[in-house]
Structures are given as C-alpha cells and as structure tokens.
Amino acid sequence: MRLRSKTVSAETSSNFAVIPVLDLKDGVVAHARAGKQAHAGKRAEYRPLATPFGPPHDAVAIARALLAITFSPTLYVADLDAILGHGNNLDLCRELAEAFPDTALWVDAGFSDITDCADWRQLGVTVVVGSESIASLEAWDNIRQSFGEDVVLSLDFDEEGLRGPAELLDDPILWPDRIILMSLGRVGAEQGPDLVRLHSALAFAGHRAVFSAGGIGNFDDIKQVADIGARGVLAATALHSGTVTQKEIAALLRERRSHS
Fold first, then answer.
1. 8 Å CB contact between 99 and 67
2. Dihedral in degrees, nearest 10, Cα atoms 233, 244, 59, 131
3. What CATH number labels 10-258?
4. What is the model's pTM?
5. Which of 84, 130, 188, 204 has CB atoms 3.0–4.6 Å from 3's, for a disulfide?
6. Higher pLDDT among residues 243 and 8, named by residue
C-alpha cells in the first residue's frame, strides 16, 4: 500500500463494534469458507450455512442471534448473487431491514456505479461499495457526490494487492468516513487479521473509522484489532463456531466504554 503516515484520532480508538456478517446466496444464508473469496468466481461454490442459530433459509433468525451475541448496532450483508451478477437478494434484505428497524444495515451488492444503488437505497440501507466492483474512479466519485458520507468503502485486497482502482490508495481524500479493510483470502479462514496492513491503513486514515474484515478466528484476534485502534471487526465464522462468545464481547465493550 502506498500510504502516507497520519495520526489516528482518539475518536477512532474510543469506540468499537463486532459487526456480524451474513452472506446471502440463492435466498439463503451461505457459508464463506477459507480462501474462497480470493477469486470472486469461487463465491459460486459457497454452500448453505450450518449454524446453531437457525436454518439457512431463516436469515432473520440467524441475524437476530448474531446481533444478540455481538451487541452490534450494525449488520453487514454481502449479497453474493448480486456481486456475481446472478440476480440479487433484495427481497430478503427488505425482510432484514423490516425485522431490525433500529439496526444499521450495511449492504454490499456489487455496486459498480450510481445506478446500481437506487433500489437498495429505497430500503434505507447503507451502501457498501467494494473496490473490486467499482467500474472506475469516476464512478466512485459519482457515488460519493450522491451519498456524501452515507456510504462505506471496502478496500478489497487479495494476495496480489488491491482489487480495484489503484488511485484509492494514493490520497485519503478519496475515502469516506468509514472504511472496511477487507482481506479476501482470509475470509472464513480464521487465520488472524492482516495486522500489518491494518496498521498502515490506520496511519493513513486520519479521522476516519477503519474496520477490519477477514481472518477473525478467536477473541484474541478481536482484541488485537481493537488495541491497534480500529473501530471494529466484521465477523461470521468465529461466531457460528463459538470460538468468540457473547461473554467475551461484552467484557471488551465494557472495557472500551470505561476508557472512553
């Protein structure tokens, strides 16, 4: 990453969230397995999720359990069909929005330009734009101009680096207030977050809130991300497997509040 050093604000380090993730495919909740997102086409191989929190066709029940475990004000949804260009799960996202009116719904549906966002914005969701899906830097500028700071940018990295316009790493003025640092090859792998890249991004981000995604395998991983100064983590596999528990998250959030 071509990142110039800047100071991480106190605001960024004083709040923290463990944001649960739902991957939707063919109308059910799917399982993001290790390494499958290193190549976008492999998302087609995701299978229905096996979880103690409900059957894969009951996304609302699974989401309710994950939100209870994490105490999160936000639910992140990846519409894999939309990302792959094979339809979408708009109706299912509508159900989630109606079931959790007090929860911020962040949705990545493979948005490449402003026209892709129209139907989703009617649901009241926050649009997550993945760098791997952006048609061009001009298209990203158009989205920013239309939505202002009510948009989240996901910087998507694979083993070769950033997927998407390289200019996004040149100047933080191109970043909105919320950034997801997505390590695609670590999604579902539980091998730990990319702390080196996270350090660099936080140094570059200034006042912006940075969230880490990919690799969370246990509570120590979450604690390391929090201690570095990120605003939160996206998590799924570790929540379903029980390697991260409600009790651990509650203790961390109490600790963060006591130091804020």
1. no
2. 20
3. 3.20.20.70
4. 0.89
5. 204
6. 243
